[in-house]
Amino acid sequence: MTAALCLRQRGLSVLVVESTSQVGGTTSTSAGTLWLPCADARAQDAAGCAEAARTYLRACIGGSADERKIDALIATGPELLAFLRAHTDVQLDMVATHPDYLQHLPGATMGGRAFAPREFDGRLLGADFARIRAPLPEFMVFGGMMVSKADIPMLLSATRNAKAFMHAAKLLTRYGLDRLRGRRGTRLVMGNALVARLFSSMRRMQVEIAFDTTVAEVERAAQGFDCTLAGGAGGGVHVRRGVILATGGFSGNAALRERWLPASAQAHSVAHAGNAGGGIALAHSLGAATEQDHVQPALWMPVSTMRRPDGSLAIFPHIVLDRAKPGCLAVDTSAQRFVNEADAYHHFCEAMLKVTSTAPDARFYLIADMAFVHRYGIGMVRPGRVPRAVEESGYLMRARSPEALAARLGLDPEALASTLARYNASAARGEDPDFGRGSSAFNRFNGDVEHAPNPCLRALDTSDLCAVALHVADLATSVGLATDQDARLLNSAGKPIEGLFACGNDMASMMRGSYPGPGTTLGPGMVFALRAANRLAG
Q1: What b/e sequence results for 413-432 when a residue is b if at least 16 CB atoms lie within 10 Å of its CB, and e otherwise?
Q2: How far apart are CA 508 and CA 484, in angstroms?
Q3: Residues 444, 485 within the same domain
Q4: Distance (Å, rounded) from C-alpha 110 to C-alpha 466?
Q5: Which of helix, strand or coil describes residue 62?
Q6: 205 CB-contact burial (10 Å; exposed 0-12 / middle 13-18 / buried 19+)
Q7: Could you give the CA distance from residue 146 to residue 124 in angstroms, rounded to a whole number?
Q8: How many CB atoms lie within 10 A of CB 448?
Q9: Could you check whether the bond before residue 453 is cis, i.e. omega within 30 degrees of 0?
Q10: Which of 283, 322, 405, 433 has its CA 20 to 30 A from that of 80?
Q11: CATH at residue 215
Q12: What whole-number distance in Å separates Cα of residue 95 and Cα of residue 109?
């Protein structure tokens, strides 16, 4: 959508081909944050900001970093923000405090590189509101109300604070009115707001969209390309200038998952199932190469799973709401801790994959006490009283002692008791000598600021324990099509293929399997969409 809007604003005729009946893909279920270093024009020291960002990205990515793409990201971020603000309905606000994920690396900052979309009123779309892909059901409350990270503490303290009560009352009143007219709330936040703002701009700028349609074939013609469409808008289309592939990567393609992802990470994905590698297949048919020598083939997220009443599988990403909070820990099959639980989701999963590289059948659990669950929730269990169905399903496993919990989890009782005892002794002192939990600014940012001395550590009540099983899932693919700094596809000789571009997760991630901060996929994705449009438009 970003590329289409850029091209349309430059006066070109654009056709967006969408394989489903809705827009949004994985973005609609995400936080919608863009990582754009130095994108805010108010930066007082532009040169210093750029050098710090380069230093940080080089340290994150390592020796294989593409300096041209790093420079492109830094240089084009301000242009992207300016374009969106001037020509579209997309409004992004810099998040002053949102730490980079690897605070120990040179060039890391505490904020200013993450940009979040403003909330959007879905009622402005009229009947086309149904075109916006809904968030994950487990991320909504009361069956269809979206809440932002800022809404959560207000809802939890609504009975104790007048300001929080008014905020909650406003949200609930709006949601109640929405449900009288539709299936979910129209107050959109996070990724849903970003998608809706882009789609609203598409409608206003009269960009043509072919829904329920796929591109079956692309062939080079004497001038441009001939495309064969299948489905709702089937037929032939002649494209004079170029084709931009942005089909979401290969998360939904079983054969490519088996080819490129480790075995222990193939079972679960939080990416949209429609991301079936169609763009990659089309590019290969036209001689494009794949870039796959990444430190990780995908970007990871720890998830827990539970069967919904209709039999479908709910997959819940454990992002920031539980792992960093005081009163929980993670263990593997050995009943030992294996990671700093407060680290970013991608790096948490890297530790899981390191375990499975030598123990393929390893299992992982997030363990807490019930006081933790009542205060913060855990996975799909929201703060407060635990529904009986959650326990009966086996999703949340409870026990009255470490030994009893070990029996439920199939772990060694003595090992788990020892792990909990060591953790509790250290947590009581507010320190973690094993993994340094709570020692970084990023850890503390996601902890509980009201808990001292360490916002990420508290001893567990071992007389009332519970656990949730964790799995590795991909939130996006990193391996993808080789491109240059303008998102042009490259052939096996590293030469650009004129007129063919890839962005989003079809394009191999410039981060090469590393994860520097919030919005690592969306920020570069939209930047290189803009660069592709600029190049294509001349």
Answers
A1: bebbbebbeebbebbeebbb
A2: 10
A3: no
A4: 34
A5: coil
A6: middle
A7: 17
A8: 18
A9: yes
A10: 283
A11: 3.50.50.60
A12: 12
Distance CA(156)–CA(166), nearest Å, equals 12
- pLDDT bracket for residue 44 (50, 70, 90): low
Same domain, 172 and 221: yes
Same domain membership, residue 188 and residue 64: yes
Q: What percentage of the chain carries pLDDT values higher than 90?
A: 92
Number of structural domains, the chain? 2
Q: What is the pairing mode between strands 243-245 and 496-502?
A: parallel
Q: Which two tokens stand for residue 35?
A: 């990582």
CB 521 within 8 A of CB 473: no
Q: How far apart are CA 229 and CA 235, in angstroms?
A: 5
Q: Which of 437, 456, 474 is the last residue of a domain?
A: 474
pLDDT tens digit sequence for 249-291: 999 999 999 999 999 999 999 999 999 999 999 999 999 999 9
Contact 345, 338 (CB under 8 A): no
- Give me the residues paired with residue 46 across strands: none
Residue 217, SS3 per DSSP: strand
Residue 37 and residue 510 in contact, taking contact as beta carbons nearer than 8 Å:
no
pTM here is 0.95
Buried-exposed string 128-141: b where 16+ CB fall within 10 A, e elsewhere: ebebbbbbeebbbb
Q: Give the number of other Cβ atoms within 10 Å of residue 8's Cβ.
A: 20
**Are the CB atoms for 478 and 508 separated by under 8 Å?**
yes
The packing angle between helices 67-87 and 522-537, to 10°, is 80
Helix (H, G, I), strand (E, B) or coil at 188: strand
